[in-house]
Amino acid sequence: MAQVSERVSGQQALLADVQARGQAAHSAGAVRQPAIGSVNRWVEVHADEYADAVVQSMAINGVDYLFFSSGSDIGFYQEATVKAHSLGRPAPKLLNILHENANMNGAIGYAMVSNRPVATAAHVEVGTMNYGGAIANAWADDVPILITAGQPPLSYGRTRRGGRDQNVFWCQEHPDYGQIVRQFVKWDHVLSPMDNPGMVVTRGLQMALAPRQGPTYLVLPRDVMMLPLEGLRFPSLAQAGLPDAPAGDPEALRRAARLLVEARNPLLITRRAGRTAAGAEALRRLCELLALPVSEAPRKERMNLPTDHPLSESGPAIEQADVVFVVDNDTPWLPGIDDPSPDATIIWLAVDPIQSRFVNYEYPATLTLAADPASALAAIADEAEGMLSASDRDRIADRYERCRTRHQERRESLDRAAQAAGQQQPIAPRWLGYQLGQALDDDCIVLEDTVGNAVNVQSYVPSRAPGSFFKNAGSSGGWGVAAGFGAKLAAPDKTVVVTTGDGFFLYSVPYAPLWAGVKYGAPFLTVVFQNLAYSTGSTSLKTHYPEGYSIKHSDFEGGLIDPAPDCAKMAESVGAYGENVNDPAEVGPALQRALKVVRDGTPAVVAVRLPQLMVETQDRA
Ligand SMILES: Cc1ncc(C[n+]2csc(CCOP(=O)(O)OP(=O)(O)O)c2C)c(N)n1
User: Fold this and answer.
1) Is the Cβ–Cβ distance between 144 and 108 less than 8 Å?
2) Is the CB–ligand 1 distance for residue 474 below 6 Å?
3) pTM
4) For residue range 192-202, what is the model confidence (pLDDT) as tens digits?
5) Which of 235, 233, 178 is closest to 206 using CA atoms?
């Protein structure tokens, strides 16, 4: 039956780690309260105030980094983390991030690449709001982040440590902090003096890590965080437990296997089957067994099938497929625009295949499998193996060969098109995609944050190993640069490369993650596809108002980023390396120079000037 997936064993590895950290932190004699019932088995820590317990609970529960953006209400974090480290107690490393939006996007990048939980800290309601759209990114990508924010103290002046001593505290008070983010988190809570602060952190992380994973929000009033303690016992994740993703109904998995074995012209569509290494491996095995071609267009969000695999992008058009197998993809086609045939059999597989977070969902389904994709794909492959007749195997082998030919033809045609565009001035977008593909090797992790140029990245930049490619599932622009910083923290031995348009580069408050990359020795390369426009305000506008007033009379006012900001100087201003590239012959050498700088320890930005959208023709792969 279902094999144990890496995501599941990842949970178990995390629990084993938590168990070990709890034991290491355990210190007898620090607690005065009587041990009642199961309390006897809880982790026990030294803690002089609530904040000490909060940071120790984070670390014991597997949080290594606290992405922190300053505020008068959250100084307790600075004190508690350094105090813990000075006294040899567990605590996450506090990272000073100069803007909350970069803080959250950095935490997302870290969690995506490490497959570990992470925590953030920001100043009251305004810091929470500055996390901004990045919270929606965490929600959309199921990222296990314990988001925290301070809250102004309620204690009357001079009556308690941390009490009201600034005018600003009155205007920061609101009836319901959780309401700010409740549509984007799985759980939220305001820490009260009655709470066990260690247990509350465990609960916030347990909720974040339980499938379907996602962010949680914990609000920490300053005076509560400064309340005294004399040690504390609390359950860690290892004691509270963490559920695995469902393995799926064996009968339904068998039915899926039968439908796929009998398919004549199948197509598998995925974005995130490779969210874990086990998922990518199970996908490859099933696809090879049944010659299932895989489509990741128009966007993939993880490395699923290696880009050089014969089954990659070598399948039929969706309307030609008789069986469409949708694996971890919330919108595999646009209803009413590029639907599959009404006669097609449609199988859905995801932890939450009906996308219960969406309000409307009009996609048809023949079979809906609610299961961890890694274990379910492995189980379907096991079942299918036993069903295949000799004639099935011959038919499937023929299909495999047809896919191999189509894959090869597509690759050659893409490469020819790029080489033919190699002399164009301004630089052709596909030439940049192609040159980037040539420059990167299997040592690289790519974080892809382009919009209009996604096709040029996805077509030319190879990703072969699990965990080597990430794209934001959310829609809040400006994720990439900060996520690159977080990714490098998670994978210090890898070369991290971010691809972004100029619009989202600027949205990413790039100085913040680049500065952090310099300060914390976490170098990464950012490649800017600089087309001096937002596709939303230029190509999109033209689609909807081709003869409109804006286009005729204002030259796309609101849609262009012209004059061009100097991205290289922005990088240099915080101690990173920057290059602007205008010559097509310089694209490859500039990328190589920047990669060397990054590998030598300094973050780098290469901004490549492309034809301006709408003013010159966009090159499509
Ligand atoms: C926070 C946020 N604000 C606005 C948008 C709307 N939006 C979607 S794509 C886009 C343009 C992105 O520009 P750029 O990164 O240069 O990409 P390109 O123009 O090359 O497609 C904008 C503004 C968004 N996704 N996120």
Assistant:
1) no
2) no
3) 0.96
4) 999 999 999 99
5) 235
